[in-house]
Amino acid sequence: MKIFKTAIAGVLVAMLAACATGPRVYTDADPATDFGRYQSFAFMEGAGKADDGDYKTLSGQRIEDAVTSALQARGYQLDIHNPDFLVNFNLATEEKIQRSAPVYVGGRHGYRNGMYVGWPGYVQPGYVDSYTQGTLNIDFVDRETNQMIWEGSAVGRVTTSMRDAPNAAIRSAVASIFNKYPYVAGRSAPMAPAQ
To answer: Can you point out the beta strands (E) in 38-176?
Structure first.
């Protein structure tokens, strides 16, 4: 019975994990940086462009628009001539395969005489899941020192609904990264995290 309960608990945890929405977000900042000195930004020349650098991709334009909106909401100004920091970003996808081994759920023995017999148990079959993983990286680089001061990444499964509505998917990914960015223009102290 204990094995059966453990198997049920494992299945429930897996189901809850599968229902979790949103990407995993990772951020890092240079601890020596005074973010209060930054008030303006611009994008790096190659940000959002095709591999040959000749033109901006649709995804690149969507990301640039979403990042601009997020930064302006925090008081930063777009200044293409003399920015305090530069923004670079990259969107990549990778095909992934996730495998799960079969799980044996043991039976139980008969506990009474007569017509009650032991239950033999069963095997929960394993599975193979093929999916596309998307990663969006956003970097801030001090324009004068050419040193990275902050980076954020969102990693998650690319779904059919995301492919059908790329504008909303990109805005959501960018918002999830900026939810972990604790600064506003001209202020050195980070904001308190949202409760």
So the answer is: 40-43, 77-78, 85-100, 103-108, 119-124, 127-142, 148-158
- Which neighbouring-strand residues pair with 155? 24, 135
d(CA 90, CA 86): 14
CA 32, 36, 42, 43: dihedral to nearest 10 degrees? 40
**Those residues with Cβ within 8 angstroms of residue 107's Cβ, 6 or more apart along the chain or in another chain:** 118, 119, 120, 121
Asked whether 136 and 151 are in contact (CB, 8 A), the reply is no
* Dist. CA 1–CA 192, nearest whole Å: 47
Residues with Cβ < 8 Å from 80, sequence gap 6 or more? 42
Phi-psi region of 114 (alpha: psi -120 to 50; beta: other; left: phi over 0): left
Per-residue pLDDT tens, the chain, 195 aa: give them. Answer: 444 333 333 333 333 334 446 789 999 999 999 999 999 999 998 887 777 667 778 888 999 999 999 999 999 999 999 999 999 998 887 777 777 777 666 555 545 555 554 455 566 676 666 767 778 899 999 999 999 999 999 988 877 777 777 788 889 999 999 999 999 998 888 886 654
Number of Cβ within a 10 Å radius of residue 170: 24
